[in-house]
Design goal:
It is a single chain. By secondary structure, the chain is of the alpha+beta class. Helix content is 31%, strand content 16%. A hairpin with a 3-residue loop joins strand 13 and strand 14. Helix 1 runs antiparallel to helix 13 and helix 2 crosses helix 6. The longest helix has 15 residues. This is Beta-lactamase-related domain-containing protein.
Length: 408
Amino acid sequence: MPIHGTHEPEFVEVLAEFERNFAERGEVGASVTVTVDGRTVVDLWGGVADPRSGAEWDAQTLVDVWSCTKGATALCAHILADRGELDLKAPVAQYWPEFAQNGKEGVLVQHLLDHQAGLAGVREQLPEGAFYDWELMTSTLAAAEPLWTPGTTHGYHGLTFGFLVGEVVRRVSGQPLADFFASAVSGPLGLEFWLSLPESEEARVAPTIPPDLTKPGTPVPSLYLIAMSDPTSIPGLMVLNNGGYMLPGQFNSGTAHRSTVGAAGAITNARGLAGMYRPLALGGTFGDVRLVSPNQVAVMGQVTSACSVDATVLVPSRFASGFMKSVDNRHLAPNDQEAVLLSEDAFGHSGMGGALGFADPRAKLSFGYAMNRQGTGIGVNERGQSLVNAVYRALGYHRITDGGAWFG
């Protein structure tokens, strides 16, 4: 499969692993971008954007990066916090009064960012197309009774996170989430990264190719096994009660792309992901664009919630105020082994099926990987992880006995 783009000589192993992804690991279409000390050192793409038409993945191809969207939404909250307009330790109801219903008076903004609010799903059956109606979703969540006592544990708010944090951003900034992100982040940085895609860009989007979980031998994560066996469980409410958003005909539609979900659905590519995290790898500023202060970057990288069994995804997870932290799940059963293996200084977010964006301030590194063929889990599979590993090796990092974390 022809690979296009550029890389600096010391990052030749990244190119080699990218080629192996196509030759040996089933990659269909993808892009990877890496910056170090603000300089782009890898910018590669290749493969097929749309197997139905045979269209190639080119330098301008865009794709849904799924939960990598959460990193963009969390960044918006941190920008407001850094400006002194949002207190992460304040009750959500201070900014969103209607939220103080059904025992949620004491829920903090921090709880939303840390997936501790108990709103990973809602019991009330959502109508078709619910995720395209911001007011419906936010009013439903404001009225909802938590699935657990907020603040006592965390469970991945896989699809509600964006409505929860995004509504706080809207109430504080006076702008819809997608507009605030465009004005505060993607616009100033010149990124092709949208939380609500303009219709004029739709033709550039490579459709997501979901995994076939019914194929014999496919390692189906516990999240989906429990969801399918018990629709009333927390995993079941997250996966199944979303108004049809998770169906292939929905999430690949122009309607979905133009809607703002905030937890998923951002349209960009590896260049956009690495570009968003580049200022955060440099203390919060790149060029003349200042997103946040160095102190806020430190907050963004600090673990604020860790759980040996996440109430939603049923595997260990760690969060830092809206961002994922490195976690090694390779000791688990084969269906639950997907992990996010970074350095302890890094923070970012994966996207369902394997996409990834992160910043590593100590290494002054930002990374983006986006693809159209999803893996089976919500973590980083061997395609993305092989690229991350090659980057860290090129920077002289090592791992103790091939352990999870990278050390510089």
